[in-house]
Amino acid sequence: MTESKEEWHCSGCGVSIQTEDPKKLGYAPESALKRDVVVCKRCYRLKHYNEIEPVSIGDEDFQAMFASLHHKKALIVKVVDVVDFYGSWISGAQRFVGKNPVLLVANKVDLLPKSTNRNKLTNWLKKSASDLGLKPLEVKLMSTVTGEGIDDVALTIDDMRRGRDVYVVGCTNVGKSSFINRILAMHGQTGEAMITTSHFPGTTLAMIDIPLGDGKSLVDTPGLVNRHQYAHLLSVKGLKEITPKKEIKPIVYQLKEGQTLFLGGLARFDFVKGAPSSFIVYAANRLHIHRTKMEKADDLYSKHGGELLVPPYKEDGEQVRPLVKHSFKVGKEPMDIVFSGLGWIRIQTEGAIVEAHAPKEVGVAIRRSIHT
């Protein structure tokens, strides 16, 4: 009986199934092994009750699994979150993929404003990837929610793989498993055969093989965890508040020198110097944005962080964290100030000096505007 148990893997997250200890990873009751499709207790509760259980797989294990791709002959499909491009980028990806061809796929395009020019966005993604050291052969846009671009991506994969296995890689929550589920649905697979997905980081825990017609496989890999995203600082309630579910509606603020915007209680943006101008905020529509004067900002955050300025939510035990300052000067081109996993602010005032504040754990950067 022991030998047969070792062969079972959860169809939802890929982890090895065990029936001995309910508190350990991969547990499923003996009765579950009689089903055509087996899922572990963690995936079952996530699918049916939206509950997440902590796991014991460390970042090093994820890195080791990803690094093994260097030795394989495969097509690498790298999926990024177009709404959080830098936050969802895997550092050092060019080393891991080796000489394998790369298809870069930007998911969640449905969340960008409808006015976003798709051709310009594709060019922006290709240049940004190149600047980060990765040179994809193709760049495609898709939405696993609306289905936009799914067929095109599937056809491109079929054309580019040329008899190779296909490995779908990316950091947590970019939509890798959702994409593969779309492919499965196109071939008539539904219900428990689907891979577990959620807005929680790290849902897929091991590589999941899906056979292709020529004896090769389409493989869903675990998402690498980028610790510089806000997702790792928030509770379920806070995470839902900052995660866009619908098309982002940009908010325009007319600011003068010495004015501040708070993005909830998670980030602060100061307009230090420059002519009065427009600043455009791109973030989840539910996120509360508060404007004040720079001279009052420290006191406001100290007194009202976690209460007026939310998330975080003090009543849920979320921590109000000290904010670290980052200073930037804008040149001639429109630029975005990016808060990893939260959103960005577009600046088009030449010579403007701004300061962006965020918890020390969170990545803050300036980039050529995605809306050029």
Automatic annotation (TrEMBL):
UniProt domain G: residue ranges: 166-226
NOA1/YqeH-like C-terminal domain: residues covered: 277-370
InterPro entries (alphabetical): GTP-bd (IPR006073), GTP-bd_ribosome_bgen_YqeH (IPR019988), Mito_lipid_metab_GTPase (IPR050896), NOA1/YqeH-like_C (IPR048422), P-loop_NTPase (IPR027417)
Organism listed in the record: Shouchella rhizosphaerae
Lineage, broadest ranks: Bacteria, Bacillati, Bacillota, Bacilli, Bacillales
Name the UniProt record assigns to this protein: Ribosome biogenesis GTPase YqeH
A Pfam entry, by short name: YqeH-like_C
Signal peptide interval: none
